[in-house]
Structure formats: C-alpha cells, structure tokens
TrEMBL record:
The keyword Transit peptide does not apply. Residues 1159-1176 have a biased composition (Low complexity). Residues 397-419, 1153-1176 are annotated as: Disordered. This is SEC7 domain-containing protein. CDD domains: Sec7 (cd00171). It comes from Tortispora caseinolytica NRRL Y-17796. One of its GO terms (biological process) is vesicle-mediated transport.
Amino acid sequence: MRKNARWAQCGAGAVLSFNVDESDRAVLPRKSGIRDQASTPTTALMTNFAVLKNKIIQTQDLSAIGSLDILFPFLCIIISPAASGPITALALRSVTDFLLYDIIPKDYPNYAIALQEISSTATQCRFEASDVAQDEVVLLKVLNLIDALVNSSACQYLSDKNILDLLDTAISLSYQARLSEVLRRSAEQVIALIGRYLFTLLQDIDPADNKKDNIMLHEPKSTANSDESYANVTHELASEVTDDTLTSLDTASKTLEPPHRLPSVVQFLIIMTDIVDTRNPQHTDQARAMSLRVLNSSLASGGEYVAKHSSIAEIAANSLAKNLFQLTKSNSPVLLPATLKLFGTLIEVIPAYLKLQTEALLEYLISCVQIDAAIPYSREIDLSAFAEVGLTVSVSASTKPKDNSSRVGTPAPRAETNIRPPDAKETIIEFIAYYLQNPVTAPQLMINYDSDPSRKDLFSRLLSVLCRNTLPDAAEWSTPNVPPICLDSLLSQIVYFLKRLPSLGDTSSSELYADVENRYNEKRHLLYFASQFDVKPSVAINFGVEKGLLPEDYTDSHLVSLLKSTPGLNKKKLGEFIAKPGNESILDAFVADFDFSGLRIDEALRWFLSSFRLPGEAQQIDRIVDSFAKHYYDSSQGDGKIANPDAAGVLSFAVVILNTDQHNPQIKNKMTKEQFKSNLRGMNNGENFEPEFLEEIYHTIKSDEIIMPEERSSDAGFEFIWNELVSASKSESIIPFISLSSKDATFDKFTFSKFSKPVITAMVYVFASATEKSVFERIMAGFDMLCELSQAYNSPEICDFIITAVSKLSALGGDERFDPQHNVTIIAQDGSKLTVSDASITLGRNPRMQTSLYIIFHILQHHSGALNKSWYRIIRILSVLYANSFLPCDAPTTVQEIYGLSPMMKPSTQFVIDRRSSKEGGLFSALSSYLSSAVADEPEPTEEEVESTLVSLDCISSCNISEVFAILCDLKEPKRVSSLIDGILKEALRIWKMCTTSRSDKPSEHGPDSSSAISTANVEAPLMKAKTEFIERIYVPVLSFLIDLIVNVVWRFTGELPEETYHKLMKSFLLFSSDSSDLGKSLFSRCVVGMIVFLRLMKETQRMELEQEMTAVLVSVIPGTTNRSYEESMKAILSLFSTTDFSPEIPLSMERRPIIDRSSSPSSSKDSESNGSDNSSIRVCVQATELLGVLAQKASLLEGNSGNGPLSLRYLWNTYLMHVSKILVKHSASPCREIRLAALNCLRLLLISPAPVSDVQIVDDVEWSIVFSDLLFPMVQNLIDPAAVKLDRSEIGESRTTAASLLSRTFLQYVTTRKPDAEAASIWLKMLELMAQLISDNQQDLLEESIKETLKNTCFVLINAGYLSINEGESVDGSSALWKQTWTKLEAFMPALRQELQNSGNESNE
C-alpha cells in the first residue's frame, strides 16, 4: 500500500468526498486488538484471517463458528481505510461469491445478522485510493455486492434501514460527475434493481400495512451540489470504526432488526419523487432523468399491486404526478420522453387514483400539439365527420382558430402550439400513440371521460389530435415523422378492436353498459344545453325540459342545480343570467346553494365568485353582492365578526374593490392596509371591524387574487389548481374510475361507433394525397379491418361510410359525369374490340382511382353483409362501367332466359375505327388513314390513350365483376335487398331523368315565319337527332341493364320485402313502361317482366293486397302493348302462369259449401269478414285471368296480322294464344265462382268475339279439332266432374249454363264456314253427349231450361243453314246419317224438341 503523505487521507472519502481525520488512523493500531507498539492496521486485518483459519482447523462443524465469524475478516477489510483498492476489491468479490454460491447455509447461526452486517459494510466501504481507474473498480465491486444482495434470497433478511442504506450508496455513486459514465450507469442499474425488487414485494405485502403507524417515513437528505449530493450523507460510519469492528464482533450485542416491508417501498418512492421535483435546484436534469427511468421500471414491476396499497398510490398520484406535470413543460429531449413514459406507466398501474390528474395532463398535452388551423378543403372528400371530434374544415386557404374558451372538466395550464419546438411536439405525439397502445385505453377513456358529464371528452380530443396530425399538412407544425406516427396509432386501434372480437358478448343485459350509455347521452344533452344557453337561455331551458334535464314543473332550485352541473357552461353568460332583472329568485336560489358556514367572508366570496364571472354592469354587481352578503350572514352569522347583513354587504364590496386595486396593472397607487381599514371605519353596524380580521383579509387578497381557476398561469396558480384537483379527486361526487381487463370487449362497439367515421375520413384524406405504395397497402388493410368490425358489430353505416368515401375518390362512383358520347371503338386486326373513352383514359392514368375501385369491389366481395345504404355508389360505378363498355361480363340473365326476353342491350359508340382493312399497309393505307382521321368528327385515340384504356381494363378485370354480380343476386336479408333495390332504382331514375331532360329541351322561341326560326331550326334539328341517337345508344342499354339487374335480384330472393319497396318498384317500372317515346317502348317488355317477377314474389310471400295492386298495374299497362313488345310480354306472362299457379288456395269451407239460404244465415256477415284475405286472393286471380283475356284479344288489333309473318294471327294463335286458352280452361273449373266466370268470359272474348282471334281464315281443321278436344270439351267435362257437383248448386249451374252457351256458339261459328264433314259430325255428336250430361245433372228447372233453350237455338240455326233436316229421311249433302244420330240422342233427353223445331219451321215457312 502506498503510505506517502499525498494519500494520507485517501479512501472512500477521497472518492465520495468524505474526509478522514488523522486521529482515526492513529487509533487503529489500538483498536485492532494487537497491543504492542509494532502493531499496524495491516497486521490487525491479517490477524483476523489467522484467527478464522485457526477456528476452521479446530472445528469439526463449521456451523459452530457462525456466519458472522466467517465473514468478519472480509468485512473488516472492506471498511478499513488502510486497505488498498485491490485488496478491498478482492474482499468485496469474496463476499459477493459467498452470496452467489450460497457458501454459508441459511441454517448457520446469526445468518440474518450476518447479512444485515454485509449490507451495512457495503455502504461503509473505505480503502486507500490509488488511481481513478482502480478506484472505480472497487466501487464497481461495491455495486456488484449490492446487486448480489438484492438478487439473492438473502435479501429477505435485510431491514428497512439496510435497504435504504444500499439505495443511498447507489444514489451517491450515480451523482458523482467525476466518475465514468459506465460506473454511473451501473449505479443507476442497481437503483433500478432495488426499485423493481421493492415494488415486486407489494404482491406479498398485506394492504393492511398501509396504516401510517406502520410506515417509517424519512425526509430526503439534503443535496448541496451535484458532486457531493448523497456523498456526504450516505453513512458517516468511517469515524465510528472501533476496536470491536476490526478484531471481533460481539454477537450477543448485535440485535436482529425486523425484515424490510412496506416502509422501504414508501421511502424509496419518496426519495425518487423528491429527485424529480423541479422546484429543488439541487438536482440536475441528469439525476431527474435517472430517477424517471428508475421509477418507470419500478412501478411497472409493481403492476396492479401498486393500486392495492393506498399509501404508495397516494404518493404517486399526488406528489409524483404533480412533479411529472411540471416536468412536461420541459423541452429536453431526455426529460420529456422519460416523463411522459413514466406518467403513462402511472396511468396504467393506478388509473383509479389518477382520473383527474390524467385528465389535466392529457388536456395540457393536447393543447400543446393541437393544430388550430382549419383542415384544407377537398372537393373529393366529405370532411363533415371531422366535426364529430371538433375539427374545422376550411372552405378557402384561410384558417380559423378554434374557440376553446368554454371547456369541461379539470383546468389545465394553457399552451399554445407555437411555444413547443417541433421535436417536443413529436415526443408528445409519440406518447399519445404509446398511451393508446394499451388495447383497453380507448374504451376506458370513452366510459370514464366522454361519458362522464363532469369530465372532458378525452377520447374525442385525443382522436381529434391524431386525426388532425395524420393529415399531410401537419408536418408544417411539427416534424415529417408526426403524420406516419398518428396514422400507425389509428390503425393500431383498429387492430385492437379486431383482436378482441372473440370476447364480444351481448351487452343488452349489462347494467353498467346501460348506465354508461345513459350518461353519455345525458352529457350530449348537457353540452347542447350549454351551447344553447350561450345563445339564448330560454331556448336552452325549454330544451332541458324536453330532454328530461328539468322536470316540467321545475323550480328555481332545479334550474340552479342544472346550471351548476352543466359542463362547459359559459361563466360569463351565467353571471349575466342570474343578475338579469326579473331573475332575482333564480339569483337567490343560486346563492342559497352554497354553504358558507365556517368560512371567512373573503374565502366565501372567493368560492362564490369562482362559479361564474362577475358581470361588468354596476347594478348587476349590486344585486349579486347583496344576495351573497345576506346569505353569508344567514349561514355563518357573520363568523362572529360581522354585525348584520348590511355590514356583510359593505365588506363584500370592499373585498371586491381591494381585489381590483391590488391586481389591476393600470392602477399605480395601490391601496395600503391602513387605507383599507380606514375605508371600513364605522361600517360594522356603527362599529369598526376588528383590525386583525381586516388585516387577514387584506394580506390574503394581496397575495392571492380572486380569479377564475383556469385563468391562473403562474406557479402559484398551478399550486392552487393542483390542490383543487387533489381535493376534488377525493370527493364522493366523482364517478369512480371503471377499469377494464385486456380482453373485456363490452364497450368496444360503443367506442367504435364514435371512433370510426373521423378515422375513416382521416384515412381517406391520407389515401387521396399519398404517393407511396406502402401507404396504400396499410390503408387498404385498415379499410378491410374496419369492414370486418362493421359486420361483427352489426353497424353497416360504417362500411357504407367507407364505400361512399372511397367511391368519390374513384370518381366513377362520385358526382362526376363521364359522358360516353365521345367514346371510340377500335376494332383490331384480330377482330377484338376496344372502347376508348374519357373514363377509361382517366382511370388508366390515375393509380389512386384504380386502387379505390379495387378497394370497393374487394369490400363488396368479402364484406357484403356489412353493406346497407351504400349500394347506390356501387351501382353508380357499375352503371358507368357498363355505359363505357368496361364490364368484362354480362349481368345475370336468368330471368331473360326463363321469359324469353331479347338479349341485354349493350352500349354502342358513334365512332368505330376498323383497323382490319389496313393490314395491307403501304403508303396508300397510311394516306387513307390520315385523310379519314382528318375528316372524322372524332380523332383517333393516341397510343398513350389506348394504353391507359388497357390498364383500366386490367384493373377492372382484377375486381372480379362476375363475382360481384353473383353477390348482388344472392343477398338473403330483406333489409339489404331492399337497400340494394333502392340504390339501383336511384341510379335508374337518375339516368331516366337525364333522358327525359334531353328530350324535353325547349325549342326556339322565335316565330315560325321568321328567318331566325328557320336558321335555328336548321341548327336544332341535328342536335335533337344526335341526342335521340345518344339516348338509344347509351341510356337505353344502361337502363335495360339496371332493370334486368333489379329483376334478377328479386327473382333469386326468397324472402319478404318491405311494402315500401314494392311500391317503389311498381311506381318506377310503371314510369319506365308508360313512356310513349322510343325509350319507353324499348324498356316496356323488361318492365312488364319485372312486374310479373314482383307479382310472383308477392304470391310466394302471401302479400295479397300487393298482388292485387300489382295485377291492377299490369292490367293497366298491358293493353298499351305495341308490336315491338307484345311477343316478349306474352312470353313472360305465359311463363309466369306456367310456373306459378294463380288459382288461390280456396279454403275447404268455400270448396265444400252446402246449398244453404244465405239470407237466413246469422253468421254470414261474420264469415264474410273472416274470409277477407280469401276474397283478396280471389280478386287477384280474377284480375290475372282477365289480364290473359285482354292480352289475347289485343292480338287481333296488332299491326301486321295479315299473312304468316312474325306477328300474324296464325303465328300468335299457335305460339301463344292456344296456351292462354288452356290456362283459361283450367280456371273455368275453379272452385271459386268469380274466377270461373272470369275465365269463361275471357274464353268467350277469345273464341266468339266480333273479331275473334280464332278466325276461320287462320285456323284450319286440325286446329279447330284441337279447340274442341283440348279446350271446350275438357272445360264442360270439368264442370260435370263429381267434385264440381259438391259445390253450391246455384253457382255451378250458372257456370254450366255459360259453358254450354260458349260451346254451342263456338260450334256454330266453326260449322257455318265449312261444309259438313266427318270431323264436324264427330264434334257435334260429342257436344250432344255433353249437353245431355249437363241437362241430366242439373236439378234446377231454370238452369235446365236455359241449357235446353241453348241447344234448341243451336239446332234451329243448323237447320236454317241447311246442315240438318227436320224431316226424317231427308238428306242435306249426305247428312242423313248425322241427323239420325242427332235425333236419336236428342230424343233421349229432349223428346219434344223435334216437334218444336217442326212447328217453328212451319211458322217460318208461312
């Protein structure tokens, strides 16, 4: 060891700035236990090892020696200033190894005392200094020993004092600026280790130890300067090194201190909190940064157990949070991040203790980074959703700062955005993003702040900051890193919602959910009440009554309670309102709501004036102060120092005047204390106020201005606000903080509904201005996740919002019009066609539009169940694509194939460039192409435009449009199908309006004879012709496409649509089909088919009334059929009748009714009412049957009936009308009388009308035989069927009579145009057999006579026409055999007929 004078006072004092007296060195030989003159500290230390060696040799059992005896020699070296650095380091290493390798078992005697001595020795380490590097090695060994102590199981035996001594030592070393950075960092790690260890203990400590009696609190030690801080106050044990400590330890005198518990944790927190206190200049920013890092790791280790120990949680929530709040004002790149990170950890571990503190901090941080400039307006984006989070949108380049004068909740220090440097703003934004990384942070903010009427909308405010700073222009106010950070944070929130979807449950039965939702709605009402109160209080009060904020018979007390509890109420307006003339009772009630007992008058006045702003008018001030003084005196009896209410009023005015005098900078000569007392002389009921009383008031007002809390900006103001905040946090009126677990998704849907639209708008805004592929991909993924959440939460409005916003970016689904009038079709040499248009060129040149289009169809294909109101945008895009010949496939054609409609019309272009003819090439071809393009109205597209069109087609092809059509036609939910139909109809009506507008352009107003009129007509005629051609080429095909799409959607739908949807369909299709122009004629057949499909769906869903209405519409439309649409309409109707039986389901009671006297039935009216729905079904069927008859009869009126052309009567009869007749025959045997009669009447019109379709000139013998064999004979046979006999006799008889008449008249029409032949004879004889059956089965005389009369008239006509002979044996064209057979059959059931015919014949001859 070095012994020169230079190192006479070295050791720990040299390193830790502790001085060692020479007297201490002189006494060491004596204290070593070696008494001769040659003894030195070194020999004493070596003697200790010799003694230990002898004990080990002499002892068989080491446990007999004891733990303390084994460690004693090493501990002596560690605390000896005579030992050199290497020796001390070796001793420290040895003791560390004892701990690391458990060399001394725990069952050795004095084990716990030995460990406590190791701890004490480590904090008292002294050695002879040599060089700085070697000295730091020793100090590093000290830190290693402390590390081993804390990390080993032996730490549990250390006392509170031991733990705090170790902490002090580590802090001392970390404060030494002269030490290397490595050593100081090592000391910081040891401090952090101690902190983590202590806070980990909290899970094993009973919270009952929080009682103050059990907690040892120590004031932090003074720190004079950075070099000596904690160095001079560690443990002054060097001067206490005694003889006993170097030679022997009397174990009997050593007492075991209790192990450390909660006091160590509390003291650790106090020490660390004191270091971060900005009011203490003794601590450097470096030390504060160290403390912040240590506290962060320590609190994180404690986790949820910190909140269970109120003594620790209260220190953290009050003292530590207060110091952190002050540190947030720092712009240091080291302090600010560490401070915010620690505050984030605090919020995580003790949220219930920090509800108001969190609000104050976040509000302050928001004020630092919020951008008051309005969002730049964008024509492509709907920015209205930003208003939900308080953001403003500019309509021009100018900006409008927001008015934050009226805020809710805890006041926070004001901070303008321009005072914080960009880097600090970026740090704050990073903290906000970090704070929101906890998946439950957003829901917790929503339910604890945005749903708490007394708190600010923190979630909405944070969302506002993130959305605003996500926009590209935010980089101008901060750094370029801020927008990406904010975008990532927003996307992360979406991911958190998505991850908790499996935990989503039913919230309908949750009382907490209902309570939060009610409070949220109440807060919205209160905020609206506050906004209206600023404008007109009477309107606000009426609103309060309407929303239940006030009872209908409210009193002044009710109103005052509402005014005081309304968040964000303008205090200036409140002061004017209560002081307004006529509101005296409200003012008295407002004042009476305060309890001033126990308060001095200036204290009461300060509290009273903090609730509103005193108005400026003198009379209003008088009213307020007088009311206050009266109530103050009544509630406190003047505090024993005020004589009466008048004296209280005078003193109140004096306090107000004094406050203005002392704190108004414009007043130079301030009022003195004596002047204040002099002004009040004799004002206390003729007496003077007590001087001490007035002096206290004077000094209080002079030192502390009566001012609104939010207007305080100094340190004193901060102290006042913070104290008020801490006091308010302990109030029972504060709604407790609601904590959620990481998997609790109870409030996710509630939060998502308020979160989604502003975020979507921000994402769309970024998407619109982004140029990087990675940004596109991230936003696309975000949209996909949002749609998945929308579907899971059953919130289709979110997905609709995305579709609407993105479709505007795609331009195809927005309000822009891509007029296809300038489209050009190019026919390539291989015959393929390519249509180049403005839309294809624009889409091909704009990658953003292509991505938008892909996003829309991707959402449709993967989240169609989440769409509701946005179908119009999708249909709008499909319409534009179809108009510009973009669709790579046709729309669904199921209905067209079933009903035999013509193929879907496709848009055509006016200009076609056929390049097949130019394949020869050569000079002539080039010259011809040039000349043709020069004279053409539309120039040939350039290669660039063609390339852009090809890119557009590739983009559309990637959207998989065929799958889109399949999805549209396979929707199952009635609500979504109805919304889809609404969207298609909206687009169809838009195009229809464009068509009608183009056709209804007003002609020139010039007179018909003027030259101007002639010239104008010459100009207008070509224009009108061009418009008409354009409508035929573009609009008609697009409308046809949309109509077919609707029809196919309805055809495949099997559910029940709302009645409103049916009415819209009927109204729209009637509009499309009723137009007399070429447009209406082109769409007529498709509209008719559509209405028939709707009719089919109505029948399947048993919508009787709608069936009847739709049938009536068809009946009114079909008669207007023209040659162009008749055949398709007929095909559709026949197909409908063949696939859907229009015969109603007749109840058994109606099918099998016995013959009764209805007039005598007492229940007839009741039966009629009960069969109302059946009657409706009957009416529908009757109308449908009549519709067939109308269509059939209409055939004879069509143009072109002559010959054998496509619309000849022969063609129509064979193709359609025969099928119609068969349907009518089927209905002629219906159990329902109305249907039978309608069918028979339609057959009559079809077969025997004045201009019958079945005219003899177009129906040959074979067809006539089919008329009787397949139509008339089955008709009569069905009515003779036994099943028909069971019906009401009167009804079936009437039908039989009608059928007999129809049969006879048809036969007469047939036979009068032909010569008698075998076929006619066969028909006649079959008819006689059926007539015989009809007569024999009729039991009613009247009906029997009617049928006989019909047959008699038929025979008479045949006789007069020469087909039959009355006299037996006569032959008419060889018909005697026929007559014999006829007469034989007639005599069987009408024996007197022959005589009657003869008599009639004789009379006729005469």
